[in-house]
Design brief:
With 405 residues, the chain is an alpha/beta fold. It is 34% helix and 25% strand.
């Protein structure tokens, strides 16, 4: 039984709940489950509290519908928001004390037709590692990535859906440079928002209300003599142009960009209006990142994957494979999974890839050329994890099937 459920059951009536204590129990339940987000949402006849664990939403508890205003009010007070406003979205931050693990919450409140929905992103510095060696990146890919990070100039891009670990990899890359060069290197970042303070890094947070966007922040930082620039995300043409230009003029630039596939990053930038010859000259590599759920070690057992997935494997991949799947137990909330691991593919810019970009070749051609020079795709990375019993083939297919060009 969860703390929040136990607290409610200990009361003579649910309506007697002290809202501050109840909210603390909900937050503690989420932290204990290593959740990344808390969703508190008015449904038809209750307030549903769900937590995102290993990327999946799980129901934590259902509260009486009359709690919705009190819950929203409590979070507004905690995040220093305007408590009497209820018809507009509001965002804020909460820094919790030692009794709740010193975590930070990013609170978002949005009005819906049934009342205000509250979503809290949990930032727990004790569970986040910014060590490249411990991120689970394959040794060959890791060696390539470190070689690219240590180059004096150029543009290194990471791509993947929201919550796939891109920011963690970038922070780990910056941490690697800090450990290697100490105070002899000038590193600056532009983020929205700054998630974790990094020592010796000049981290700039955007302020859209003052027109202080990525492009404006980058223009200002370029006059600050940086050697390494981290850009939270390339969202628009102007940011893309400055990032490419910085990579060409002696700066090491690391950033993220949303694209359906790793090879598709070039098409995305060309569609933004960036000249192919500038991309071919500035981009050092593109890394695709995904997170897949790991089998729960307490309940993992042999199973037979779906026939359609087995048909996609070669005889060599099937030989000696140990396919496991979690049956579900108390340790993993009956999901069969515990924790997540990364899948990566690193597309280095070879001469043939450079020529393909210049010729505006389709993404599938660029992908094929990268594989020919040794790129291990996300799919093959995932298959290796599934063969070793670390995750399921279905989980791999769910995360990377769309990337098969």
């Amino acid at each position: 039984m969860h703390d929040s459920e136990h607290y409610l059951q200990s009361l003579p009536a649910q309506g007697k709940a002290e809202i501050g204590i109840l909210v603390n129990h909900i937050i503690w339940d989420a932290i204990s489950a290593k959740a990344s987000d808390i969703h508190i949402e008015p449904w038809e006849d209750s307030v549903a509290v769900r937590i995102r664990v290993n990327g999946q939403l799980l129901e934590l508890i259902h509260l009486p519908a009359e709690f919705k205003e009190r819950l929203a009010g409590r979070f507004k007070v905690m995040a220093n928001l305007v408590s009497h406003l209820s018809g507009v979205p509001q965002d804020g931050k909460v820094s919790l004390g030692a009794e709740l693990g010193n975590v930070q919450l990013r609170v978002s409140i949005v009005p819906t037709i049934r009342g205000e929905k509250i979503v809290c992103r949990i930032f727990d510095s004790t569970t986040r590692s910014f060590d490249l060696e411990t991120l689970g990146i394959e040794p060959a890919t890791l060696a390539q990535l470190i070689a690219l990070i240590n180059k004096p100039n150029g543009l290194l891009l990471l791509t993947g859906p929201t919550g796939s670990g891109k920011t963690t990899v970038i922070y780990a890359a910056l941490q690697h440079l800090i450990m290697k060069y100490g105070t002899t290197i000038s590193i600056a970042s532009v983020e929205d928002p700054v998630e974790v303070p990094l020592p010796t890094v000049s981290q700039v947070q955007l302020n859209p209300a003052q027109d202080f966007n990525f492009a404006a922040a980058l223009r200002a930082l370029m006059r600050q003599d940086p050697q390494v620039l981290m850009i939270g995300e390339i969202r628009d043409v102007e940011t893309a142009q400055i990032a490419v230009q910085a990579g060409l003029t002696g700066h090491m630039v690391i950033s993220t960009i949303h694209s359906g596939t790793t090879a598709g990053v070039f098409a995305r930038l060309i569609n933004m209006g960036i000249e192919p010859f500038l991309l071919a000259s500035s981009v050092l590599g593109v890394m695709g990142v995904r997170l897949v759920r790991q089998n729960c070690p307490a309940c993992a057992q042999p199973y037979e994957p779906e026939p359609t997935l087995l048909q996609q494997l070669t005889e060599e991949e099937l030989d000696g494979a140990t396919f496991l799947r979690g049956a579900g137990c108390d340790a993993c909330f009956n999901t069969g999974f515990a924790g997540r691991m990364s899948l990566t593919e690193l597309l280095p810019i070879s001469e043939k890839v450079r020529e393909a970009v210049l010729a505006k070749q389709p993404s599938r051609v660029i992908q094929k050329l990268a594989v020919e020079v040794g790129m291990r795709t996300l799919w093959h990375s995932g298959v290796a994890r599934a063969r070793a019993g670390q995750t399921t083939l279905e989980e791999v297919a769910r995360k990377v099937a769309s990337d098969q060009l």
